[in-house]
Amino acid sequence: MEALLAIAIGALVAAAVYLMLARNVLRFIFGLVLISNAANLIIFTGGRLTEGVPPLIPEGANLPAADAANALPQALVLTAIVIGFGLFAFALVLIFRAYTTLGTLNSEEMRVAEPKGDPLL
Amino acid sequence: MNSIILRIGSRYVVGILLLFSIYMLLRGHNEPGGGFIGGLIGATGFVLYAIGCGTADARAALRIMPQTIAMAGLGIALVAGLAAAAFGDALFTGQWLFIGAEGDDKGLPLSTVLVFDIGVYLVVFGAILTLVFAMEEEI
Amino acid sequence: MTNDEPSRRSGNGFAGVVPVLISGAIFVFFLTLVPQISAGDVLRWSYDWVPSLGIKLSFLVDGLSLTFSLLISGIGTLVLLYSNTYLAGHVQYARFALFLTSFMLAMLGLVLADNLIGLFVFWELTTITSYLLIGFGHETTKGRRSALQALFVTGAGALALLAGLILLGISAGTFEISEILAKGDEIRAHEMYLPILILLLAGAFTKSAQFPFHFWLPNAMAAPTPVSAFLHSATMVKAGVYLLARMHPAFSGTDVWLWTLTIFGAVTAVFASFLALRQTDLKQALAYTTLMALGTLTLFLGQTSSYAITAFVTFLIVHSLYKAALFLVVGCIDHATGTREAEILGGLGRVMPVTAIAAAIAALSMAGFPPFLGFIGKELKYAGALAVASEPVFVAGAVLLANALMLAVAGVVAFRPFWRKTDSELPRTPREAPWQMLAGPVLLAAAGAIFGINPDLLQVPLVNPTVATFLGDPTDAKELKLWAGVNLPLFLSIATFVLGLLIYVIHRPLRNLLIRADNAAPNFDRGWDAFLSGLKAFAWWQTKYLQSGVLRQYIFITFATVLVGLGGTMLVRGIGNVLPDLTGIALRNWAVVALITVGTLIAATTRSRIAAVAALGVVGIGVALIFIIFSAPDVAITQLLVETLIVVLVAVAMLRLPFLDAQGESDHRPWDAVLAIGVGGVVTLTLLAVLATPLDLRLTEYFEVTSWPEAFGRNIVNVILVDFRALDTFGEIAVVVIASLSAYALLRTTAKEKSE
């Protein structure tokens, strides 16, 4: 299963990179969402997959079941999801703001700081 | 959005979701749940309320500005972390008090860890509502 | 006002006097240590600086460091006294005095440090203060360029030095210099000996301006003359020599050490002596003789015989005394006449008799005439050169040629300006320098004479303990004496006088010849300029292509780097060939993966906003299903909730944002697709390679074992978040707050602009 997921993650990353390379920044943040998902899955898969045994300690025991899932990547992924959401929301607001100010979603036309024909460029 | 069913329904759902989110928060240390999940559930409830009844109503129902809630949550989490220093431990070391503990039964556990998780809950709750309310109002 | 423009006002008040008193007190303090050190004692003082790295701030006073300390603080006092008059009334004198005093303290720290890291810190402090002092005349392009050049050359060398010192510390197992020196045999046999030596030499040779790094030193003469006297002849440029001397017990004796130092030293000495004769500016001429002296000192440090070491120690002292004196004399001449041009100056002897006498004594010492200390130094140099076992003729020949040229330069610098008859018009009517400016040259020249007549004053207190630093035994030092009998060094001395006087007589035609030769030869200074402009052109070029201001290009370069880095590493190491094992996977899991993949493909290719958002939702839910199936309930719940919120936010934003593609425009980008597929493929291969390596579960096991008994939580994921790694979580929720407040602020600004 890990191998199958590795291939699916490759597809996710490829789609994300393709979207992030687009001129339209809305596509860029779609790519951002996909690559966040891919990164979370990489961490999760890297810690190996276990079906049906969550990392919980049963009542009356001191240890989780011997074949319990790896808790560490889960903790990492959980915070990464929330942070990824924060990043996504900020990026979305930023492109919204850019659109209302500049009137375009094309990143190549957003050149207020470095206008075309600048002698330094 | 103007839908009577959604408007009436969201008033009840927000209450249920808030209650559920606090339940998820409190059980989080032993069962699936915790501050992140609780905060997300609570925020989802208010987002629904804002969609159904408008952000003005949602803000009024919340009473406190969401960004204040987020900052308060950050402060609470920090205090919970610093409290360990008062007991002579390294920062962010959990401190526990068991009320009525007998033998194996640990009674009612109170801890800085729970306080910290409440801080996380408030941060997630407040931060998401800050964002969503502002977006709904400004866009 | 320019640096060397004199003012007739005297002194600079508080800022002028205090530094003199400080440095004077330091000099007296070191003088009081002389009896103890010459009796064979070594003083050590240590303070734990960075205990976790074994770095101490430790200081050591032995013969070598005491000799240097006395030269630094003694000459420092005289130079500060001199400067107070030389730069009297300069608006930035306080700054100048601060730089110069800081330099002196840094230099003292450098020679006293007994820890490699401490030594390096002081080394760099001298680099920086030297930069500030050379650039004191920062109004001129030349001043700024010279300062920067010195900083770059010595700074680059210092980086090499740092690497060498760290390697040395690691190889020796200690950063304390005195402990390292005790392990000489171990270090010479160490496999890292050669790399360490090369790095140390890079630092020492740049600092001490050895060929081919010599070009910065003559340019450093842009500094005010007292600075040149202090830093660029008597002290800072000797830091490289000091480093070699300090490391001598641990590193010398190998063929590499012997030949590198001998050849670089000899080439520098002879090359610089010729260039010295080429100069018509007195200060430039002195600068090149300083190079010659540094070369000679390096040459002798290559050897291990007691003659060579005694010659090194004696010449070190002799050179500091006469060279500082002569620089100060040139400063007096400049101050009095407004020029330093050898072909204009003349007949100053009658107007400036004291300066002339001090100059004459210092020059005679430099030229190596008896009964001055320079004579003893020169005799020892010949004895030391002849004691070189391998190539005595080469070494003695180099020393002889350099000495003869030096004699001629001494005549040009300190004899002709005073006693030559000239009709040239001077820019200013000269008069004798005030006493503050005479004190330095007179005392320094007198010291050369007194030590020459009575070498015992120097031998027991300083030379013997310093030689002992190298060879371990003060009795190894050869005797300093004026009359050593009729021997080969004496004949070489006579040959030097004859050759030197001959060169002096024909020095003007010879100079023209040298100028022509020098112009034809490759010019290192111009090479430096070419190097810098090449560097700038490269920076301009790479900025133009890498930082184009186009977001797409940044992202393209970033992912292309990922592709090349990961893919290249896997190709080189041959770890990319893991075949995926796709057997035994439940149909349900195939279905989830298919869901994710289909969503992904739609999201990447659709031109509809609604379809894209829906496809993202499908992917998110598919990922949540993966978390549910593979035992991560907390993560799955979080993922589902976040997916919901993302859809809400995007839906709200869509109300005001335009369509994905403008009318008639399509989004076909074949090259981007090639890169994207490449990156995706390399990520898959990397993950497969990771999965093929064993997993280290120690951390997970620790959390599992301690979660309930110590942290009283049954949900291990939550316990990690709020207890074990609570500080990390705190940082993360802080990020969430910042992101939401920033977004809020951005939206509010829009609203305000709308309402206005």
UniProtKB/TrEMBL annotation, chain A:
Listed InterPro entries = CPA3_antiporter_subunitC, NUOK/Mnh_C1-like
Q: Which organism is it from?
A: Litoreibacter roseus
Q: Which UniProt keywords apply?
A: Cell membrane, Membrane, Transmembrane, Transmembrane helix
Entry protein name: Cation:proton antiporter
Q: Which superkingdom is the protein from?
A: Bacteria
Q: Which NCBIfam families match?
A: PRK12658.1 (NF009301)
Q: Which family does it belong to?
A: Belongs to the CPA3 antiporters (TC 2.A.63) subunit C family.
Q: Name one Pfam family in it.
A: Oxidored_q2
The answer, when asked if Hydrolase is one of the entry's keywords, is no
> PANTHER family, alphabetically?
ANTIPORTER SUBUNIT MNHC2-RELATED
The cross-references to Gene3D superfamilies, in alphabetical order and at most eight, read: 1.10.287.3510
Q: Where are the transmembrane segments?
A: 25-44, 75-99
UniProtKB/TrEMBL annotation, chain B:
Q: What is the lineage of its organism?
A: Bacteria, Pseudomonadati, Pseudomonadota, Alphaproteobacteria, Rhodobacterales
Q: How does it sit in the membrane?
A: Multi-pass membrane protein
Q: What's the gene? A: mnhB
Q: Which keywords does this chain's UniProt record carry?
A: Cell membrane, Membrane, Transmembrane, Transmembrane helix
Domain Na+/H+ antiporter MnhB subunit-related protein residue range list: 5-130
Q: Tell me if tRNA processing is a UniProt keyword of this record.
A: no
Show the InterPro entries listed in the entry.
Answer: CPA3_antiporter_subunitB, MnhB
Query: Does the keyword field hold Transmembrane helix?
Result: yes
Protein name stated in the entry: Na(+)/H(+) antiporter subunit B
**Protein localization:** Cell membrane
- TM region(s), chain numbering: 12-29, 35-56, 68-88, 108-134
Tell me the protein family, please: Belongs to the CPA3 antiporters (TC 2.A.63) subunit B family.
Q: Which GO terms describe its cellular component?
A: plasma membrane
UniProtKB/TrEMBL annotation, chain C:
Write out the annotated subcellular location.
Cell membrane; Membrane
Indicate the segments forming the NADH:quinone oxidoreductase/Mrp antiporter transmembrane domain, all copies: 113-396
Q: Where is the MrpA C-terminal/MbhE domain?
A: 669-749
Q: Which GO terms describe its biological process?
A: monoatomic ion transport
Q: Which residues form a coiled coil?
A: none
Keywords for the protein's UniProt record, in alphabetical order: Antiport, Cell membrane, Ion transport, Membrane, Transmembrane, Transmembrane helix, Transport
- Record InterPro entries: CPA3_Na-H_Antiporter_A, MrpA_C/MbhD, MrpA_C/MbhE, ND/Mrp_TM, Nuo/plastoQ_OxRdtase_6_NuoJ, Proton_antipo_N
Q: Which spans are transmembrane here?
A: 12-37, 57-81, 93-113, 119-138, 150-172, 192-217, 257-278, 285-302, 308-330, 351-373, 393-415, 435-453, 482-506, 554-575, 587-604, 611-630, 636-659, 671-692, 729-747
Q: How does it sit in the membrane?
A: Multi-pass membrane protein
NADH-Ubiquinone oxidoreductase (complex I) chain 5 N-terminal domain location: 52-96
| Pfam families registered for this protein in UniProt | MbhD, MbhE, Proton_antipo_M, Proton_antipo_N
Molecular function, one GO term: antiporter activity
| Cellular component terms per the entry's GO annotation | plasma membrane
Domain (MrpA C-terminal/MbhD): residue spans on this chain: 594-658
Task: Describe the function of this protein.
Answer: NDH-1 shuttles electrons from NADH, via FMN and iron-sulfur (Fe-S) centers, to quinones in the respiratory chain. The immediate electron acceptor for the enzyme in this species is believed to be ubiquinone. Couples the redox reaction to proton translocation (for every two electrons transferred, four hydrogen ions are translocated across the cytoplasmic membrane), and thus conserves the redox energy in a proton gradient.
Q: What is this protein called?
A: Na(+)/H(+) antiporter subunit A
Organism from which the protein derives: Litoreibacter roseus
